[in-house]
Amino acid sequence: MSVVVIGDRAVGKSRMGLALAEPSEEPKVQVIEPDYQTLKDEYINVDTGGMTPTRDIYKRPFKIKVELSTKRIIESVWIDTPGEIYDLEWQIEHPHAWKEFKETLNQSLGIILLLHPYQEQVKPTLIDSTDSIFALDRETLLPAHKWKVDLVNWMKFLRENCNQVNYILICLNKADLFCSNLDTVGKNFQSYPSYKRQDEALKYFTAAQIEIEKYNRKDRPFQFFITCVKNRSLLELPWIYLSPYILYS
Amino acid sequence: MAEIRIIGARQTGKTTYLATLAACPHKEYFPGLEITPIGDDSKRLVEMAWDIIAKYQSLPPTRRGSPPEYELEIKFTSASKPITLLAKDYAGELFEELVFEQKDWSKDVREYVNDLLTAQGWMIVLTDWQQEQDTKIYQPAIKNLLSELNKYEAYNKDKAKKRIAVVMTKCERGEIWAGRFEPGEDLFKVRLPKTYEEMMKPKVYPQRVKFFACSSFGVLGDKNPRPNRYVPKDGSSIDHAYLRDNAAWQPYGLFAPIYWLNTGNFLSDNRL
């Protein structure tokens, strides 16, 4: 059973996989196959140091080492997707590929949707202090009211097209742009029981609180996270959540 | 050996019950109590309890199709003879489809019923979250199931009458916790009256039916009766709850129905 990572262009889908493969001290989640170097060679543009955009839907078997009640190795298929396919124009131009993708999506074990933060949420000082390879223009982010519509559209899409999928995770990515104390937040989040993580993560989604209550699934509710490639603790949490389901599927 | 079937609608906590029973997180309170999972499926069930329930997540729903079979050897004291439980865990959807007239049952529902009829005992698991379930699902489904049982037993007169344990799960909730000592009178009769009435009809042979209350999560402590459950504020259904504190995980009444199904006797310690 596969895990599909979806989300708009440049939201950090491939980088999530790369960052989880990067060796780290006492990781709770570590992608061990493919190894970090293989992924780095593939994803990083040597001239710019930035990510090479994903051009195709890419299904890749992977193994991760994860700390559950004991350490486990789990295997699944990671499906990485190019951000273009979530544009309406692309879907209209490629109806067969889009239909096929939606079928693949609905057959997956889990879906991880990565979202950009919204304009009002990000702190200009944090944008200014970010490394050049992560540079981002605040104006390219959606303002809260449009971000909310975008999230509602995602939730409607997931409810309509992914009713077979038990585990749908919605991650507000790039938490370094809206959390000034990222290390503390990461440590806290990793110490929370899963239900508290859900409540705490939802505090970062307050712009869409009413809509989330309305469009969340009554059973198999969407799980909410904040994530960031610069903070291993936050990045690992969606995978810690999914791992037992992959293991016991 | 008690070969039983766990029967109930979706989200009544059937698999959580079995996984908690197999993992027995409160073993330390009962010296001599030993649960040995037999076979890969049962060992996996124990791991699921620790990797999922104890990590504050919910177990995956049981899918239709061939049901997992779990075998557990349970020893209540070091001196007692062990009992063996062989349980099949069916998808809740199958139970819900028993509400249709028998002639409209699908092939897998018919196979499900045929398999239930071959078991020695039934454990019917119900909750009272949505009280309309009493008339919408539980009573009509049980009525149809019992009618099949009557036919089966009329035809197989040589076989012993099946024992039926009717269990209300998720009893840690404050409003029903107090009713756990007399579950027939104080829980089922009051909260699921039509279902209770159905089970008590003379043609069902009510002597074979016993009512139980159990909780896979339990309460937070002997002096803290708050439920060890957490309902998140994410718009999901109120019955979608998680274990609140794994250090205080002390389930209640899990063994009683199995012991009765197996032996026809009751355990003296009602916490078991």
Q: Overview of this structure, please?
A:
The complex is a heterodimer of chains A (249) and B (272). Chain A is an alpha/beta fold. Chain A has a single domain (3-247), classed as P-loop containing nucleotide triphosphate hydrolases (Rossmann fold). Chain A has ten helices and seven strands. Chain A has helices spanning 13-21, 36-43, 88-93, 95-106, 124-128, 144-161, 182-191, 194-202, 209-215, 232-247, and strands at 2-7, 29-33, 58-67, 71-80, 110-115, 167-172, 223-226. Chain A has a seven-stranded mixed sheet. In chain A, a hairpin with a 3-residue loop joins β3 and β4 (71-80). In chain A, α1 packs antiparallel against α2 (36-43) and α7 runs parallel beside α10. The N and C termini of chain A lie close together (8 Å). The model of chain A has no long low-confidence stretch (mean pLDDT 91). Chain B is α/β, with parallel strands linked by helices and 272 residues long. Chain B is 34% helix and 20% strand. Chain B is built from nine helices and eleven strands. Chain B has helices at residues 14-23, 40-53, 92-96, 107-118, 133-155, 174-177, 183-191, 193-199, 255-263; strands at residues 2-8, 34-38, 69-75, 83-89, 121-126, 163-168, 209-213, 219-221, 224-227, 229-230, 242-243. In chain B, α1 (14-23) crosses α2 (40-53). The longest helix of chain B has 23 residues, at 133-155. Chain B is globular. The mean pLDDT of chain B is 92. The interface between A and B is medium-sized, with 28 and 25 residues.
Give a quick rundown of the structure.
The complex is a heterodimer of chains A (249) and B (272). Chain A is of the alpha/beta class and 249 residues long.
